[in-house]
User: What shape does this take?
Amino acid sequence: MTDDEKEFRNTRGWTRPALAALGGALAGFAALATAELVSAAVRPQSGPVVVVGGAAIDRTPAAVKDWAIRNFGTDDKLFLQLGVLSVLAVFAIALGMAALRFRRTAAAGVLLFGAVGAAAAISRPDSNGFSDALPSIAGAIVGAVLLLFLAGRLVLRGPVPDATANPETGPESGPPVGRGWDRRGFVIAATTAAAASAGAGVLGRALNGSSGRGAVASRDEVVLPAPVSAAPAVPRGARLRIPGISSFTTPNGDFYRVDTALVVPKVNARTWRLRIQGTGVRRPLSLSYDDLLRRELIERDITLTCVSNEVGGPYVGNARWIGVRLSELLSECGVRPPSRGGPADQLVARSVDGMTIGSPVEDVMDGRDALLALGMNGEPLPFAHGFPVRMVVPGLYGYVSACKWIEDIELTTFDAYDPYWVKRDWARRAPVKTQSRIDTPKPFARPQAGPVMVAGVAWAQHRGIDKVEVRVDDGPWREARLAAEDTRDTWRQWSLAWQAPKGGHTLTVRATDRTGRVQTEKRARTIPDGASGWHSVVVTVD
Assistant: This one.
């Protein structure tokens, strides 16, 4: 069989469709790599995967977000980005195959995806305008041109002889049928495009990584001053030495992170500023990071809880924070709480990534240790937890208090403005509910019969924990031994020695806070203002 005959057979088999699909995938890869490179000249948050993923987060129903956090935990953003890339890959392959017959239409499809990315970039809350659309536009143009070129190499051209002609007279005598295609040209173009795209992607990723070097350097330069009011030493007996129980102080690397930022903002402390303005602000303020460092700092142990934390969930942690009293800054601005005649009842904190979080003015000015935090567990805030500055308000769920990467505080009213999460059906006000959790034994554990230590943590920030009780199966409630209390703003460890008989058992825990309110048995979803119910674990005693 001659080379021409082989080439003709390839035009009728799977080779051209397969190569067309490969061409589409390469066009998509080139588009993303180009966008990554261009985003390095704009800002890392302008990449199409980031902006489309961010737009998807903004438009995802609250129940779906809650499901993602529950099932994927802090990896939810990774799964979202993988999902976006998977969808793009499927469409790129489909457009590549369509380009066999409709080259211009398929190329227009690539441009359409670029338009979607550009629209998502411009619509983001933290958008810088048209410049944020440039990576998506540039990537789409490169992808469309490459798809046109690769598909052009697969177009049938030039006559080849009829391979079905009489073998006695030879294929040369047959009438010309079909047309060949430029296999060599496709291979060269595809290989070149793949190499160039990989290089562009690697370079763009490296440049985007280096764009945060100034922020990293500014954090490395920070020396936190000694606080004027240091946190009291953690009392002896507050840290139980029981295997499996949560550490009283959560290390920074283990502290939960739940937010909408697909790319962690790296803010340069040298250029960062905070503005305080709005209703009832008689003296607006603009503060630099150094301005805050020069103020009187306080240090406090405070437990934070995410509203997405299911009963018995992991999104709660305790840290030692250092920062400036938020109430003092507001007072300097002339702000009065509603109880003293102030016109504003909501404080809206804005992050550099466009997030808005609304807190009750009354709560942040009622004497509790509401902070603009600069440090966490003895070091400047990690980037993932809000460097250079974040809010910390004991007793409130994070979505109504814990603004990370904060850059603006506006005083307004709940009637006048709905922050990000309120627009998505979460409650405007959300004090932390009294909760408790069994840390050990773990669900479905198989301890040996005999003495078994049941232990965990309970929390009711700004109220404090007064009692914890444990029940085995349907038996009576037994009071657990409470560890020493640090402050009413921190969680409290507890333990109970259980003489475990053989068989399957259900362990249940409940807490009572300092106001005398017993943790409710009624199960509630996290939406709209936090989960409720008793935490239980099932074990089998051998």
The first strand starts at residue 157 and ends at 160. The CA atoms of residues 450 and 500 lie 5 Å apart. Residues 160-178 have pLDDT under 50 and may be disordered. The two ends are 73 Å apart (CA to CA).
